[in-house]
Every structure is written in structure tokens, then in C-alpha cells.
């Protein structure tokens, strides 16, 4: 009887306690859903050597001053930064983040629990967890951090003449990740390049080069723009090439060259047709030979006749002068009778030459 009363009293007292426990547990479960942790939807990009803020806040807005805020990467225990009980803890902080992190407390009363990382390094790239706990209520969000390295200012060099223009090269080094190079005119329009090379060095950084051929009166003023694929910012260099550096061609020289080419073509044609005619005459030589010989003989006879007539004319003049001289000599001696005119040996030789020419 007594034992039954004891069991009934225990049952009566345990049922209300169980109800209270379940109610409190349910209330705590409801409290765990009272806030959520919000981070950026897109990856965050930082530049090596600069500072970056990883945004994180509570929704709805409420004070996180008495909550635990833990930033970590892969290991929950070894954290990037820990805030709890109103102060920062550094005992289990990852060595590479020591003295480089700061929880921004200016907006902590409004639920802003963003983390600032100083002097970004390439090794900082990766995923970050923003974890918040209040009693048994907790929530977290994950965000991605990309780290970029901005390389050197593009170096533009004029190499040589190529394809009727000037070959210009742009090169830069020390970029991460792989950069993008673009040629632009003064209006910002992209210009096509003739070549582009990229290579990753042992230190993990990239170097890149691109080239273009500038034509006269087209794009003598241009710029080389190189940027990181994560960032819209980049570095740019410009160059202007005067028209006097372009290959110069004299219009008169061009006209002269064209005329010479045309004349050379005509000369080749004339030589070709002459060779054809000469070969035709040689093939028909038996037909043309008698005619050629007769023409040659007539030309020779006419030439000999003309020369003989000239010689006889000169001989007659000489003989006449000789006769006059002999007549004058006879009259000076006082002779009035005619007598045979005897000339000198020169006149006799001339007369003999004339007689022989007439006989021939």
C-alpha cells in the first residue's frame, strides 16, 4: 500500500517535470532560430599588401557584444580570430594571422561582426567561416577570398619594321592569377594583337607579353592595358609614334618603278619576237640566200663605181692644173707653135690611172 502510494506520487511529480523539461527544450530550439548569420554572396578579392574586410552580420539586427564570434578556416579549434565574453582571444590563433586580424567592434551593437585582415598575403586565399553562438543558439556562413598580385607597369618597346608597319611589344611581370592584356586606341577601342605569350615562373607569378603592328595614319597613338581577371583595376602605359618613323615611300619613286616594270615587259616581248623572227629566217635561209647575195653584190658594185668616179674627178682636176702649168711654161719661153704637152711624172701617173679606170 505504501509502495503503491510512493510510485503514484513519483509518477505524479515526474510528469509535470517532464512537461517542463520538454517545454524549455522547445523554447531553446525556438531561440536557436532567432538569428542567422549573413555574409557576401560573391567571392571577395584582395590585393597582396593591402587590407581587406570580410563582411558578416546578424539578421535581424541585434547586439553581438555578449556572443561568441569565431572566424576560422579548416579547423574550428585553431582559429583566425576569436571574440568571446567581450574580449579577443589569441591563444589558439593560427600563427600566420597573429597581429594581422581585428574584429570591427564599431557596429557590434547592431550585429556587425566583420573581420579586418591586415597586409594580405597570397597564402590568405581560401574559404572563411563566420560562426556566431549565443548560449545553445548558433549559426554560421561561409565566404570565399581571392587574392590577386598586381605586377609591374607595362613596358612598351618599339622592335622593328614588319608588314609595312612598326612592330611594338608590351610586356609585364609579377602577376597572379594569369593577367589579361589589351591594346587600346585613344577612344578606348580594343585593337587586335599579332601575338601573345604568358608563362608562370617558379614563384607562382605570371609574366605576359603581347605585340601589335602599327600602320601609318591609323593607330600611331595607343596604350597597353593589363589587368587581373578578378579585379577591374589594372595598369596601363601609352606610346605615340611619329609619322616620320614609318616606312616612307616617294610617290615619284613608285611611278618610276611602275614605268620601269612596264618598259622591261615591252623589252622582253620585243626580244622574244625578234628571236622568233630570226629563227624563222634561219629556217628559210635557202630561199632568202640568192636574194641577199644579189643585194649585197649590187651594193658592192654601186659603192665601187662611186669611189671610182670620185677618184677620176680628182685626177682630172689635177691633170688640168698640170696642163695649165705646162702651157704657162711654154708661153714664158716664147714659143708660139703648138707642141705636145708633156706633163710631169705625177700627171702621167694620174692619166694612166684614169685610163685604166675607164677601161675597167
- Span between termini: 194 Å
Could you please say which CATH topology of the domain at 36-148 applies here?
Immunoglobulin-like
How many DSSP helices? Answer: 4
Number of E-state strands: 19
Q: Give the strand order of the largest sheet, numbering strands 1, 2, ... along the chain.
A: 2-11-10-5-6-7
What number is the mean pLDDT?
76
Residue stretches low in confidence (pLDDT < 50, at least 5 long) are 1-13, 25-33, 295-301, 318-344
Which CATH-level-2 architecture of the domain at 36-148?
A: Sandwich
Strand portion: 25-35%
Helical fraction: 25-40%
Superfamily (CATH H level) name of the domain at 36-148 = Immunoglobulins
**How many strands, what sense, and barrel or not for the largest sheet?**
6 strands, mixed
Structural class: alpha+beta
Radius of gyration: 59 Å
The CATH class assignment of the domain at 36-148 is: Mainly Beta
Q: What is the succession of H and E elements?
A: HEEEEEEEEEEEEEEEEEEEHHH
The backbone outline, from C-alpha atoms, is rod-shaped
Amino acid at each position: 500500500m505504501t509502495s503503491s502510494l510512493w510510485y503514484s506520487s513519483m509518477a505524479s511529480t515526474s510528469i509535470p517535470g517532464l512537461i517542463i523539461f520538454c517545454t524549455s527544450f522547445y523554447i531553446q530550439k525556438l531561440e536557436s532560430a532567432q538569428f542567422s548569420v549573413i555574409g557576401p554572396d560573391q567571392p571577395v578579392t584582395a590585393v597582396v599588401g593591402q587590407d581587406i574586410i570580410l563582411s558578416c552580420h546578424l539578421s535581424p539586427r541585434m547586439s553581438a557584444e555578449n556572443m561568441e564570434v569565431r572566424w576560422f578556416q579548416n579547423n574550428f579549434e585553431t582559429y583566425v580570430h576569436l571574440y568571446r565574453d567581450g574580449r579577443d582571444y589569441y591563444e589558439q590563433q593560427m600563427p600566420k594571422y597573429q597581429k594581422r586580424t581585428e574584429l570591427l567592434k564599431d557596429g557590434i551593437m547592431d550585429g556587425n561582426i566583420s573581420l579586418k585582415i591586415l597586409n594580405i598575403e597570397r597564402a590568405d586565399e581560401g574559404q572563411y567561416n563566420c560562426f556566431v553562438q549565443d548560449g545553445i543558439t548558433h549559426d554560421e556562413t561561409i565566404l570565399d577570398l581571392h587574392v590577386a598580385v598586381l605586377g609591374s607597369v607595362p613596358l612598351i618597346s618599339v622592335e622593328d619594321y614588319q608588314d609595312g608597319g612598326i612592330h611594338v611589344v608590351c610586356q609585364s611581370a609579377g602577376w597572379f592569377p594569369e593577367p589579361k592584356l589589351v591594346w587600346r586606341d585613344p577612344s578606348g577601342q580594343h585593337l587586335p594583337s599579332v601575338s601573345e605569350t604568358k608563362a608562370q615562373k617558379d614563384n607562382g607569378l605570371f609574366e605576359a607579353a603581347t605585340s601589335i603592328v602599327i600602320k601609318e595614319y591609323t593607330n600611331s597613338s595607343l596604350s597597353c592595358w593589363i589587368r587581373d581577371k578578378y579585379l577591374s583595376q589594372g595598369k596601363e602605359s601609352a606610346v605615340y609614334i611619329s609619322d616620320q618613323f614609318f616606312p616612307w615611300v616617294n610617290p615619284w619613286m613608285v611611278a618610276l618603278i611602275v614605268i620601269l616594270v612596264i618598259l622591261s615587259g615591252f623589252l622582253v616581248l620585243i626580244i622574244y619576237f625578234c628571236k622568233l623572227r630570226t629563227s624563222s629566217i634561219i629556217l628559210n635561209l635557202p630561199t632568202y640566200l640568192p636574194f641577199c647575195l644579189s643585194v649585197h653584190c649590187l651594193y658592192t658594185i654601186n659603192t665601187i663605181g662611186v669611189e671610182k668616179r670620185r677618184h677620176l674627178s680628182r685626177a682630172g682636176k689635177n691633170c688640168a692644173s698640170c696642163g695649165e702649168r705646162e702651157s704657162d711654161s711654154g708661153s714664158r719661153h716664147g714659143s708660139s707653135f703648138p707642141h705636145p704637152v708633156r706633163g710631169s711624172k705625177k700627171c702621167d701617173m694620174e692619166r694612166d690611172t684614169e685610163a685604166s679606170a675607164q677601161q675597167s
